[in-house]
């Protein structure tokens, strides 16, 4: 996965996400899944065809020309929900061709998260993505296999199904299958980004918490409440247990890390956890 940091690409993504939400309006689960699959397909084509993605992201040409090209290429292949999203994407101004690919891919993932949100299962999907990231990240052989871009996508999907089939939400399984089919870097990192994208659907920030012992549900809730007071916004807790840190507690929210070097805030958090 890739984070869109350029202002132009963020604006393009925001505009296209509005079109995506219109496309999902009134759609059932099967229709949203179909929309996501088509967007993933477009992202895959753009990822393979460098000349095409350059042409569709070329800011020196007018947007109507880019739209016309997109309609010629995809008009007969995409459904009535996906085509307007792709057209809006190519009409928008991205900072570069690769950002267009990343943007369309993110739109596909967002569509699946919208499906989970409407079904009331977004919390579960977020938690499953985070936990799978930790499981895969702790197994070097599995991480290496699933992150290998030269390995068979079909074979990796079989491995994913063996790992999660019947144990996670269908949306989670779809997201993981797509991620391992087109990995960029470590799959565990991609899963962490997906979990954070899930949290953003609910306008929450994520706190990555490492403790030496498990925290109870009540302790996690108290920690979330304390962090919400510190950061003045809702916080989702993603917990990892690592006995090697001793009796410590490490918390990362965005770029800020709360650990032994910021002992005042850490001691206050420990007191809150102790009740």
Per-chain topology:
Elements: H1 7-24, H2 29-48, H3 50-56, H4 63-74, H5 82-91, H6 97-118, H7 122-137, H8 140-147, H9 153-164, H10 170-181, H11 187-201, E1 205-211, H12 217-231, E2 235-241, E3 249-253, E4 256-258, H13 263-274
Protein architecture, described:
One of its GO terms (cellular component) is plasma membrane. It is a peripheral membrane protein. Belongs to the ATPase delta chain family. It is found in: Cell membrane; Membrane. This is ATP synthase subunit delta. This protein has 275 residues and is of the alpha+beta class. The protein folds into three domains: 1-119, no CATH class; 121-202, Peroxidase, domain 1 (Orthogonal Bundle), CATH 1.10.520; 205-274, 3-Layer(aba) Sandwich (Glutaredoxin), CATH 3.40.30. Helices cover 65% and strands 8% of the residues. It has helices at 7-24, 29-48, 50-56, 63-74, 82-91, 97-118, 122-137, 140-147, 153-164, 170-181, 187-201, 217-231, 263-274; strands at 205-211, 235-241, 249-253, 256-258. A four-stranded mixed β-sheet has the order 2-1-3-4, with helices on both faces. Strand 3 and strand 4 form a beta hairpin. Helix 7 (122-137) runs antiparallel to helix 11 and helix 9 packs antiparallel against helix 10 (170-181). The protein starts with 6 loop residues before the first helix and ends with a helix. Mean pLDDT is 87; it is low at 260-264.
Overview in brief:
This protein has 275 residues and is of the alpha+beta class.
Helix content: 55-70%
Overall outline? globular
Number of helices: 13
Task: Work out the number of β strands.
Answer: 4
Distance between the termini: 39 Å
Radius of gyration: 20 Å
Number of domains: 3
């Amino acid at each position: 996965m890739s984070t869109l940091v350029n202002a132009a690409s963020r604006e393009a993504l925001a505009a296209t996400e509005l079109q995506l939400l219109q496309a999902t309006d009134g759609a059932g689960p099967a229709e949203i899944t179909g929309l996501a699959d088509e967007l993933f397909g477009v992202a895959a084509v753009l990822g393979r065809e460098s000349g095409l993605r350059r042409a569709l992201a070329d800011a020196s040409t007018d947007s109507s020309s880019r739209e016309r090209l997109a309609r010629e290429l995809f008009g007969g292949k995409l459904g009535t929900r996906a085509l307007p999203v792709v057209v809006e994407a190519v009409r928008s101004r991205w900072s570069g061709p690769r950002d267009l690919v990343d943007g369309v891919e993110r739109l596909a993932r967002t569509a699946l998260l919208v499906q989970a949100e409407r079904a009331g299962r977004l919390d579960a999907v977020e938690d499953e993505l985070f936990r799978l990231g930790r499981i895969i990240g702790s197994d070097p052989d599995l991480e290496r296999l699933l992150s290998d871009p030269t390995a068979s996508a079909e074979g990796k999907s079989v491995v994913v199904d063996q790992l999660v089939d019947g144990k996670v939400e269908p949306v989670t399984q779809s997201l993981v299958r797509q991620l391992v089919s087109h990995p960029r870097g470590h799959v565990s990192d991609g899963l962490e980004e997906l979990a954070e994208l899930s949290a953003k659907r609910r306008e929450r920030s994520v706190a990555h918490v490492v403790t030496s012992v498990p925290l109870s549900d009540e302790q996690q809730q108290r920690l979330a409440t304390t962090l919400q007071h510190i950061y003045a916004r809702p916080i989702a807790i993603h917990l990892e247990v690592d006995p090697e840190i001793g009796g410590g507690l490490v918390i990362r929210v965005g770029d800020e890390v709360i650990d032994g070097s910021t002992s005042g805030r850490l001691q206050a958090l420990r007191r809150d956890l102790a009740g």
